[in-house]
Structures are given as C-alpha cells and as structure tokens.
Amino acid sequence: MFGLFMLVWLATRHIMFMVMCWSVYADIPKTIAYGCYSGRNGAIKGPFAPPNRLAHLIEPFRNPEGVVCWNDKIKWGFLSALLFLECIMLLWFYMIVQVALKVVRGGQADDVRSDDEGEEEEEENESFEEELHLQPYEEEVGVESINLKGRISNASKMRYKKSATSATGVSLPGHSDRKELLGRIGCDKGV
Questions:
Q1: Is a pLDDT exceeding 70 seen at residue 145?
Q2: How confident is the model at residue 70 (pLDDT cuts 50, 70, 90)?
Q3: Is 53 helix (H, G, I), strand (E, B) or coil?
Q4: Hey, which of 35, 165, 178, 182 would disulfide with 187, CB 3.0 to 4.6 Å?
Q5: What's the CA angle centered on 48, arms 20 and 56, to 5 degrees?
Q6: How far, in whole angstroms, is CA 133 from its chain's centroid?
Q7: In this structure, how many other beta carbons lie within 10 angstroms of the beta carbon of residue 105?
Q8: Contact 1, 33 (CB under 8 A)
Q9: Could you tell me which of 96, 113, 110, 108 has the C-alpha nearest to residue 4?
C-alpha cells in the first residue's frame, strides 16, 4: 500500500501538477487575451481595459458576474504560488522516500518529521535535569525554638480561649487563632 501511495503521489503531485503549471505558463495566454472580462458563463463581455481603481480585484468575490482581469502580473502571481507549493511537495516526497528506503533496508517505518520534535523534547528534559542537580540553597532558620510535640504554654492556652470565645462567643476545639499558631512554631515571643 505504501508503494502504491508513492506512485500515486509521484504521478499526481509531480507529473500532473507540473503539467498544470506548464499550462498556466504557456497555454492560458494563448487561449485568454490579456484584459478584463465581465458577465456570466456563456455571455462574457470583453476584453476591455482594466478600471483605474483596485476595487475590481475583490469584485468577483462580491458579484460572480463582476470584472475579472487577466494579465502578465496575475499569471506570474498564480504561477509563483503553484511553484512554491511544488517545492514544499518535493520536500515531503523526499521524506517519504527516506521512510521507504529505511524500510527496504530492514528498519522500521518511522515518521522522520516527528524525529526533530522528539530530539527537542529530549534536549529540554536533559537541560531541566541538569538544573535539578544544582546544589540546594540552605539557610539557618532557628529551629531550636520550635515545639515539635504540639504543646503550648499555659499562657498561650489562656489567650486562645479568651480570643476564640470573645470574638464569636463560640470555642471550636482543634482550631486555633494566629497567636496560638505563632506560639506553636516558637514565634510568640516579641522580637
């Protein structure tokens, strides 16, 4: 199936497409005289001189029977866009041939387009891992005053009961106010 795909690709995108490009270059100027035309299919009027304004360029999009012009600049505009597309398709065909050759040589049919993306991701991961191996920043914080058993002084208990019941009138066990929290981590003393 892949071989059939390659043959169809070659025939349609590189042979028939180039025949169409040649027709735009050589045959259309012989068939259609340079100038502007208007009307519907079968009742076309022209050729006549192009209007002075550039509004006639978008008129066919608004009115199907509007003015359509054909000249050397328009021909080369179409032809250059088609040839640019052919260059892109040649690049794609080169990638397809690379995959086919890899399979013929006994390798796996990997998509060569995705190889670049994977390498970029691997490089990003490697640089991120290198950053992770940096030495950590250490700072003395005075852990001697922290009460790890969760005990608080009698003075802190009294303040807790007063503040909790005085503000709301309700005391909730297990909930603390700011002063008790500071007391637990050893910061209840003034600086």
A1: no
A2: confident
A3: coil
A4: 182
A5: 75
A6: 31
A7: 7
A8: no
A9: 96
- Distance set, CA 169 to CA 141, 164, 176 (Å): 37, 7, 14
* Alpha-helix residue ranges (DSSP H) falling in the chain: 2-9, 17-22, 28-31, 59-62, 72-104, 112-132, 154-168, 178-184
146 dihedral zone (left: phi>0; alpha: psi -120 to 50; beta): beta
Residue 152 pLDDT > 60: no
Count of residues making up the chain: 191
**Mean pLDDT confidence for 37-48:** 82
Answer with the residue of higher pLDDT: 133 or 21.
21
| Angle in degrees, 0-180, between the axes of helices 72-104 and 112-132, rounded to the nearest 10 | 70
